[in-house]
Design goal:
The complex is a heterodimer of chains A (198) and B (316).
Chain A lengths: L1 H10 L18 E8 L2 E8 L4 H8 L18 E4 L2 E4 L12 E3 L1 H4 L7 H8 L9 H16 L18 H7 L10 H15 L1
Parallel strand pairs in A: 1-5
Antiparallel strand pairs in A: 1-2, 3-4, 3-5
Helix pairs in contact in A: 4-7
Chain B lengths: L4 E4 L3 H9 L4 E4 L5 H6 L7 E4 L8 E3 L5 E4 L4 H6 L1 H6 L1 H8 L4 H6 L2 H6 L50 H7 L3 E5 L5 E5 H4 L18 E7 L6 E7 L10 E7 L5 E6 L9 H4 L6 H8 L11 H18 L1
The chains are: A alpha+beta (198), B alpha+beta (316).
Chain lengths: 198, 316
């Protein structure tokens, strides 16, 4: 219910039932922003409240990125911004002027899947698929984080290079919840994709 | 979420000044906690000052041999920094024990210190909460308290501070550097930074209105074994029931702070002095004034056992 309310707020920014009593503020409650998504620039005039997630889904109609909890707890909204995975629900769109946003649509398309998307298909790394775009964006960033030697809670020796093990993958993917419970296949898919990329 | 105006601050001084001119303004950096609370209308700023363009994202050596961590250094970058993982590994361990990879990529050093409690009653706008609405009462008292504080509580609040990073900062005797709205700067030792709830649980730190954190400074490395052990209801991505941050020297002396038990990272000099006498003595000192509820009494035992495991690990 909270998620629905937030979505309708972002779309119906001028919804009179939520208008501020101080009407003269209205003009300042919006900001122009240029979002760069999957290599394409979009000039938007947004209610300041619009999250990056709502901008992607409701304004740019890129509905591959999913809204689950809308509170940073489930990871379904994970996108990659300037090379880093973040929760698109917990950041304002207007705070991403000219940053490079990559969504699931930017990774691959039917007939031309990204190797990670293909690995998820090959390993049955999903059932209902709702969390999958977030899982895939997150898993690509996880491989980059391991390459960059960013430590995790599963890392043993902080002086050694981070390693690509099932334990590391599980820990690093803990911000992506899958209610269908496809976790073990997701780990297999990520390890497989990491191998094919090496 | 309530409507708000928005500006990108051009300098620290401008940010502090903008905050001083509007008591309902908030700074926003990573935003991972603030926006969550704004969606629930627990936080209702009328103006946001975006400080992400201010730099403050470097980790530099201090003349004293320590490190100055810019307020906007992301949790991921702090945890991964070579000098941190080598000389202050307690801090890396605490950081990676908290949140998720996505959140750590956005969350900042200053924002982590200032995150609000995850007390379920604070998060439920339908319930009285002295922190959210001063004077409305504490729903946690007589409510579900399993996760909540056991020491330093008051008749008005049982909330815990949720940060893992802050526990490590307390062990390391970090210093918070700020700029006030009149442009003056000051340094606040982490030991004096957080307040106990008493009868003003809505006032959580010593920061004044509009005061802006610019950096967190670590003193020179102190050596020893650095250990952070977190006990929680699931293996990852959950807040602590109890966590222990410790630096233990070869002779058994050292420092210890506890997370998940109080309104701030819980460290006592008298407890540090007991380290050579073992986990029972240390936890007895730390928990001497504990006033647990029936539901969270287990935390007292959990502190002792977790401390025992930490001291064993230090000896191994």
């Amino acid at each position: 219910m909270a998620a629905t309310a937030a979505a309708s707020l972002a779309v119906g920014a001028d919804n009179p039932t939520r208008a501020e009593p101080n009407a003269k503020m209205d003009g300042q409650n919006r900001t122009r922003v240029t979002l760069s998504v999957n290599g394409k620039n979009h000039d938007l005039d947004l209610d300041n409240r619009t999250t990056l997630l709502d901008a992607l889904r409701e304004h740019l109609h890129l509905t591959g990125t999913k809204k689950g909890c809308d509170h940073g707890q489930c990871g379904a909204c994970t996108v990659i911004v300037d090379g880093r995975r973040i929760n698109a629900c917990l950041t304002l769109a207007i705070m991403h002027e000219e940053e490079a946003v990559t969504t699931i649509e930017g990774l691959g398309q039917p007939g031309n899947l990204h190797p990670m998307q293909a690995a998820f298909v090959r390993h049955d790394g999903f059932q209902c698929g709702y969390c999958t775009p977030g899982q895939i964006c997150s898993s690509l960033a996880v491989l980059e984080e391991i390459k960059a030697n960013i430590p995790s809670h599963a890392t043993g020796d902080l002086a050694a290079a981070a390693s690509l093990t099932p334990e590391e993958i599980r820990e690093r993917m803990s911000g992506n919840i899958c209610r269908c419970g496809a976790y073990s296949n997701i780990v297999d898919a990520i390890l497989d994709a990491a191998g094919t990329r090496a | 979420m309530r409507a708000f105006t928005y500006e990108r601050a051009s300098s620290v001084e401008a940010a502090a000044k903008a905050a001083a001119s509007n008591r309902d303004a908030k700074f926003i950096a990573g935003g991972t906690n603030l926006l969550d609370l704004m969606k629930l209308e627990i936080e209702t700023p009328t103006h946001l000052i975006d400080v992400n363009g201010l730099g403050l994202d470097r980790i530099e050596k201090t003349p004293e041999g320590g490190l100055r961590i810019g307020a906007l250094v992301r949790n991921t970058d702090l945890a991964a920094h070579d000098a941190i993982r080598k000389d202050y590994s307690l801090l890396t361990r605490a950081l990676v024990a908290g949140a998720s990879g996505q959140l750590r990529n956005k969350a900042t050093t200053a924002g982590n210190l200032l995150q609000r409690t995850r007390c379920p009653y604070f998060y439920d706008p339908n319930q009285p909460c002295n922190k959210r609405r001063p004077g409305s009462g504490c729903s946690a008292i007589g409510g579900i308290t399993r996760q909540l504080a056991v020491v330093g509580t008051s008749k008005d609040c049982l909330a815990t501070h949720p940060s893992d990073m802050a526990v490590a900062m307390r062990v390391l005797d970090a210093v918070v550097e700020t700029v006030r709205s009149d442009g003056s700067s000051r340094s606040i030792p982490i030991a004096e930074f957080y307040r106990l709830p008493a009868d003003t649980p809505h006032i959580e730190t010593e920061l004044e209105a509009g005061e802006f954190i610019t950096a967190v400074v670590l003193p020179a490395p102190i050596g020893g074994k650095h250990i952070y052990r977190k006990v929680r209801d699931r293996a990852s991505y959950a807040f602590a029931l109890v966590s222990i941050g410790a630096v233990i020297q070869e002779d058994g002396a050292g420092r210890v702070a506890v997370g998940g038990v109080a309104h701030k990272p819980w460290r006592m000099e008298a407890a540090d002095m007991e380290l050579a006498n073992g986990a029972h003595a240390v936890s007895a000192a730390l928990m001497a004034d504990a006033r647990p509820t029936e539901q969270n009494r287990f935390k007292i035992d959990l502190v002792r056992r977790t401390l025992g495991a930490v001291l064993n690990q230090a000896r191994s």
